[in-house]
Amino acid sequence: MALIFIRTIIVFGVLLLVMRLMGKRQIGEMQPYEFVITLIIAELACIPMSDISIPLLYGITAMVSVYLAHQIICLIDLKFTKARSVLSGTPSIVINKNGIDDTQLKKNNLNVSDLLESLRGAGYFSFDCVDYALYEAGGSFSALPKQNYEQIQSSLPVIIVNEGKFDQKNVSLTGKDEEYFLQILKGQGCDELKKVLVMTVDGNGNAYCQAKGKKYRSFKLNWEKNAW
């Protein structure tokens, strides 16, 4: 037991030193390759701690080797722009002046619901509250709001149509039916439901609609204010 305790303390000290040498970004926002290296180091640290048949030096050597590999990759990442895009990826602009870029969403294995959730996490509750939104290479989400976005956020929007399909729960919440929204969509030039990327409506009747590959439209529905 005492041997395991001593080995654990030694491995912990080496691991702490290695993580500190890797820099502050390793502890905060990590690039994909840094995340992989962190997982590998964690696994390497567990083996010599739990298995006393493995020489402690083997585990320490492996962790130091991974640290050296990290330093080499960081050097390449800093010096060569093309290599950086391969190793770390590039930011993906998912909302622009035309609305949602569903191509970028698919490249990042995301859907409209994921995007709306990220917006809410950033403090914006409607797609038309922001001019631009993007996912950084490290996975964090950033958005550039419109100047009057506080006025747009007058009520909580819900998704009525999500990638060509009605959200039955949210349709029921509005007190309307699918036929009502189909007529609204036709009035906005969306004759086929399957071609609608997203449609949202808030309690004051403010609607956001975007067909796949088209520019979004914002308009007002004629119904009671503060419907929910």
What can you tell me about this protein's structure?
The structure is a single chain. The protein has ten helices and nine strands. With 228 residues, the protein is of the alpha+beta class. Strand 7 (196-201) and strand 8 form a beta hairpin. It is elongated. The model is unreliable at 24-28 (pLDDT under 50).
Write the layout of secondary structure elements.
Layout: H1 2-21, H2 24-27, H3 32-50, H4 56-79, H5 81-88, E1 92-96, E2 99-100, H6 102-107, H7 112-122, E3 130-135, E4 141-145, H8 149-152, E5 158-162, E6 165-166, H9 168-174, H10 178-187, E7 196-201, E8 206-211, E9 217-220
The main sheet comes to:
5 strands, antiparallel
The total of helices stands at 10
Structural class: alpha+beta
Q: Which value, in Å, is the CA radius of gyration? A: 25 Å
Strand order of the largest sheet: 6-5-7-8-9
Shape, principal axes of CA atoms: elongated
What low-confidence regions span 5 or more consecutive residues with pLDDT below 50? 24-28
User: What is the chain-wise order of helices and strands?
Assistant: HHHHHEEHHEEHEEHHEEE
Proportion in β-strands: 15-25%
Helical percentage: 40-55%
**How many beta-strand segments?**
9
| End-to-end C-alpha gap | 62 Å
> If you average the pLDDT, what whole number results?
83
